[in-house]
Amino acid sequence: MRHNFSRRRFNATLGAGLALSALAPSAFAQAFPSKPIRIVVPFAPGGPTDLMARAIGKTMSASLGQPVIVDNKPGGGGVIGMSEVARGPADGYTMVFPSILAVTNPALMANYPFDTLKDFAPLTVVGFIPHAVVVRPEFPAKTLQELVAMAKAKPDSLSYGSSGNGTSAHLGAALFAQRAGIRATHVPYRGAGPAVQDLLGGQIQFMFLDMSSALSQIKAGKLRALAVAPKTRFAGLPDVPTVAEQGYPGFDVHGWYGLLLRAGTPAPVMQRLHAEVKRALDTQEVREIFQAQGIEPGGMPPAEFTALVRDDLVLWKRTVEQLNITLQ
Fold first, then answer.
1. Looking at the domain covering 36-128+254-323, what would its CATH class be?
2. pTM
């Protein structure tokens, strides 16, 4: 009898424990957040990342009932800001908001201090920033095919600018040159602004320019877009064909800005944060802010973003190795 009683008591205790464990994720998610959330922007104030973070943070604050604080930590190509999350607790209260540098820097930096997939938990893409192949209005090539024909007729006669070595603009243009079988000279600048000025002045002939810098100038007639680099057309320039449509199937280069948390962040917290970011991205106010900057809202679930990060890590590692690209 004593044995049967002990067994019944054990079973009752086990059942209660299992019930509590089943409820724990839900209760955990409901209790989160109980204090302010911080979004670390690893770039200086005023850029597209800062703008996006503040736009979604405002909406998330109202929905979560806690302040969402944007904290700019520029430097080191995003490494300084990412360190804030890599060294912190895996509790969801600190997120970092890097650009695609999170997947290009590991290929470019000899001693990159993180493993993007092992040290971080990708939450979602907040915004995609397409790149356009742009030239000055009077440039003789009217299509991407004509640009390629010019480059092939006189190898090394054309040059393209970027906002710096190792940026998505540089890597995208270099990858295109490889796919097209052309030789063109890369000219890095300290930012997109000086590069565009030299493009307009004729010192360089073309650029892979992000839409946040290009859209207003294209619409004003100051630049002419020959193509967009992602696999699908950009809604803001529906008449501009993609690179893939113009003879380079499978070509798909995109800039993105996404939220990462510390690896090991509980799944219920990840789910709650993803739902809140997605809710913010679906608001009219945020969509209008993004549209004005040439940004396409994201919102993909964590598993899908993780797959994108994994694919991009492979793509850019292969590109950097094949083309011998360095940060020097």
1. alpha beta
2. 0.84
Quick one: pLDDT at residue 8?
Answer: 45
DSSP notation for 222-254: SSEEEEESSSS--TTSTTSPBTGGGT-TT---E
What is the bridge-based pairing of β-strands 120-135 and 224-228? antiparallel
Q: Helix, strand or coil for residue 266?
A: coil
pLDDT at residue 29, rounded to an integer: 53
Identify whether the C-beta of residue 36 lies closer than 8 Å to the C-beta of residue 67. Answer: yes
Q: Cβ–Cβ contacts within 10 Å for residue 271, how many?
A: 15
CATH class for the region spanning 130-246: alpha beta
Delimit the CATH 3.40.190.150 region(s) of the chain. Answer: 36-128+254-323
Q: Which of 44, 40, 39 has its CA nearest to residue 74?
A: 44
Low-confidence ranges of the chain (pLDDT < 50): 1-26
Burial 68-101 (b: 16+ CB within 10 A, else e): bebebbbeebbbebbbbbbeeeeebbbbbbbbbb
| Dihedral sign of CA atoms 158, 163, 168, 169 in order | negative
Structure tokens at 288: 């209008």
